[in-house]
Design brief:
The complex is a heterodimer of chains A (265) and B (780).
Chain A lengths: L4 E3 L4 H10 L3 E4 L5 H6 L7 E4 L9 E3 L3 E5 L4 H6 L1 H6 L1 H8 L4 H6 L2 H7 L6 H7 L3 E4 L3 E3 H4 E3 L2 E2 L7 E7 L3 E8 L6 E10 L2 E7 L6 E2 L1 H9 L24 H20 L1
Parallel strand pairs in A: 1-3, 2-3
Antiparallel strand pairs in A: 4-5, 5-10, 6-7, 6-10, 8-9, 11-12, 12-13, 13-14
Chain B lengths: L15 H5 L15 E7 L5 E7 L1 H5 L3 E6 H6 L31 E2 L5 E7 L2 H10 L1 E6 L23 E8 L1 H10 L2 E9 L11 E7 L4 E6 L4 H10 L9 E4 L15 H13 L3 E4 L2 H7 L6 E9 L5 E13 L27 E9 L13 H19 L3 H8 L8 E2 L5 E2 L4 H11 L5 H10 L2 E11 L7 H6 L8 E7 L5 E5 L8 H13 L6 E4 L17 H27 L7 E4 L2 E4 L5 E3 H9 L13 E6 L8 E11 L5 E11 L6 H21 L29 E5 L17 H18 L10 H9 L1
Parallel strand pairs in B: 1-12, 10-11, 14-15, 20-21, 27-28
Antiparallel strand pairs in B: 1-5, 2-4, 2-6, 3-5, 7-15, 8-13, 9-10, 9-12, 13-14, 16-17, 18-26, 19-20, 19-25, 22-23, 23-24, 26-27
Helix pairs in contact in B: 9-18, 14-15, 17-18
Classes of the chains: A alpha+beta (265), B alpha+beta (780).
Amino acid sequence: MYPFNYHRPQSADDALALFKAAEDGIYLAGGQTLLPTMKQRLAAPTDLIDLCNVPDLRGIELETQAVSVGALTLHSEVAGHEGIRSALPVLSSLAGEIGDSQVRNRGTLGGSVANSDPAADYPAAIVGLGATIHTMDRSIEGDDFFKDLFETALNPGELITRICFPVPERAAYQKFPNPASRYAIVGVLVADFSGEIRVGVTGAGPCAFRASGIEQVLNADLSPESIDAVEVPESGFNNDLHASAIYRAHLVKVMAKRAVADLLN
Amino acid sequence: MAKEQGIGAAVKRKEDLRFITGSGRYTDDLNQPGQLYAAFLRSPYARADILDIRSEEAEALEGVVAVLTGVQMAEDGLGDLPCGWQVKQKDGSDMVSAPHPPLAVQAVNYVGEPYGIVVADSIATALQAAELVTTEFRELDPIVDLVLATDSERIHADVARNLAYDWELGDAEATDAAMQRAAHVTRIEITNNRLIPNAMEPRAALGIYEAATEEHTLYTTSQNPHLERLVLSAFVQIAPEHKLRVIAPDVGGGFGSKIFIYAEETAVLWAARRVGRPVKWTASRSEAFLADAHGRDHLTTVELGLDAQNNFVALRVSTRANLGAYLSTFGSSVPTYLYGTLMAGQYRTPNIHVEVSGVYTNTSPVDAYRGAGRPEATYVVERVVETAARELGVDPADLRRKNMIPPDAFPYETPVALVYDTGNYEASLDKALALADYVAIAERKAEAAGRGKRRGIGLACYIEACGLAPSKLAIALGAGVGLYESGEIRVNPTGNVTVFTGSHSHGQGHETTFAQVVADRLGVEFDAVEVVHGDTGRVEFGLGTYGSRSIAVGGSALCRAADKIIAKGSRIAAHMLEAELEDIDFADGQFQVRDSNRSLSLGEVAFASYVPADYPEDLEPGLSEKAFYDPENFTYPAGTHIAEVEVDVDTGVVELVSFIAVDDFGHVINPMIVEGQVHGGVVQGVGQALLEHGIYDDQGQLQTGSYMDYCMPRADDVPDLVVDATVTPCPHNPLGVKGCGEAGAIGAPAAVINAVVDALGTNDISMPATPEKVWRALQG
């Protein structure tokens, strides 16, 4: 690890001010990606701005048709929260499958979403459920949030405060984990909003996206079999040691079918 | 001594209290006053010439004590790292061993190869300084591909075709002729995937030099500290043996990778002398991936000839073995004498010929890894036998049974240089088939098909050779060291016992099993026996732990030492009891005059030996004896492993649903520890079959350099393992033991892949059988 300045601001405004003043500052939430990267000397921020004392970044609120989760909420809190488990069980089960228990006890929703790791699980929920990402001064629709590999719609220093997940009638998430890292090689979340189907895909491409072709056929016929007819083009998909783009494209369909089967059960 | 703590008892491990309470003392736990820390300069390229190293900026950094390179090491007269096994080629010439300086001087030949060491007052400073060193390299095209390597530029100036050796074993002519006459020939090409060892504790070293006495001390993660001392002294010439102490304290796993004499440990000790202060280095996991010796990495063509009655008549094996950039300590022997000699397997194949090309590439050196040659051999034999059964449409178990060496054929001389001492292969096969409910596999397949899964079953009937021996033969075949073991037993004046062994425990539980053996032999309490190992300053000599040799060779040495204790004790007892020596019997810790009630305990005799008042005149005081045990033959553990898998046809995911291991390890000292060894070995074998793969890209960069990409098996990758045994005691060692440390890793890969092949109905799938590979095989 390279030397850095450590800050623990007491407000979001202070955090932003520190960020702006730093030569190469970075926010620290759960640190589950950032700290290992720094330890391996692959990242060398000048300033680490720890958000742990910033108020209003925590807490889970159950609204009429939505679940609002503070950015610093731990994966384990989402996974174990009784209210989420009954209102939006797909989110708690997704969170319960992230990494291992150490990661789930430190990693945060906001940290994961802001990082836009192509293989992270939460992004499938952001696009699949059509979540709204609230920052200090605006709201960003889930569909517009992920831009590319580790790139989001956030401006430099812009801090996610809460994420609001609309509650569908039913939903299911299916993940094909990388055997080594257990990140998603492909993860597909299918949600049914009173007949309007949304399909969010993570792992397959440079960032999470909606699978519009699959949505189309499911809107016509919500059944696993209907997905057989869909062509999922592998163009632009990730291609690495663990899975070729073609295999990922195939897995998108398989995971989508399994999610639909789950959802119908 | 309580029977429940003697030989055969599932005694809980003595060492576990300190391990599970965090009280173990590993190399990195140790610190010395004035200690400094090392970081290594490592090559970022797979092949490059070193043109210039500029370290002024690094040396100017506060806290940096020295930046040392291979040039200075050479100036100090340190020698190369030797390869300890001289393999003779087909034409009788010696293998071609390229010079291997501990720190590269003129050229680097694999990514991660160390060429300098930075010593500083903290780890952070050492790492920062290492980054400030600017090295000018001339990049060269790396030779990475094992097939193309022999037609590529020379990696080492003196090694034509990048070929270390071209070796053979067996009768080529007779094998060719028998193959010609065969009614059926099965031919397959197989890959044995490169593995990266991943012991839980990475390598570490703490070097100490006392200028006033010229004493060198190296604490390090070694499986064989005496060998480390011998090589550092005789070959690297860092210090004479009597001025060099090597201590391997608690060591967290080795699996072979800590046998070898590496650059870093050598450099740390040398640097400590150069700077006059203790120097410590602990590998990061990333360094471990790059610079620990890797395992396996073979390409093989194998042909099995069968006559019209399905008898095996000939086996022809041609292997290309990747040795990496340099010959590691035992790298040359693994694909030759530890591999070719096992090609008979459990079968009476009369004609066998094996040829092996040992090839240099610009990758990390390859050496022994759990099983070391025997998993590769078992994979060759058991894959080709399985394929033959499929081609001939006969039951794979029946074909194996038909060709097995029968129990009355021992000792059995194979066509590939070994004499199997004893065994009953069919007994293990039968027991494993019964445990697997083999006859009902069709029903299970049908049931799985109803769930959209393809189920398959696979066998591996393996044999291995443990306790490499005897020394004379091994040395004649090129080994640079003897293969005996030493043991010393000191009965202390108050009757408790300190045991010194030259083998080393780094997870095997010797402190428990060796204590069981000695307690049993001497009839003392298990808790009254303490086992000392891993310190050249306390143990006279030893050859360490590898090749499942510790109980068969090290345990036997202790038995011999115990015999000497009993012999001397009998003389003392005869004198004290005023009886004839031949009338003294020893049992359960008592020396007794036959047919009388006169007896003395071992403790009483020991006390008398140290306070020799009433004592034989012609006998030396004291009750301490040592023995060197040189086995007359290998031991030959064997058994049958059966794997059952289910393949998800949609994704290609292979689930291991059951695994049965029936092993014949001869007598067993501690069945609980043996079961644990089988568990660990099987899981490593499953890892090789389904998950693990060390991959270099065409530029020689390691693509699987962390746990994000190198897939180690985890608890949820394996079902509950069924472990059972048959027993034919080893006839030539005093305990009747064979060794159990590697069997799991030897049998499992072939069993699992045979099961996958059965499920898929294809003839091959290469290891590791990853989901995408299996899915593609399913697409046809």
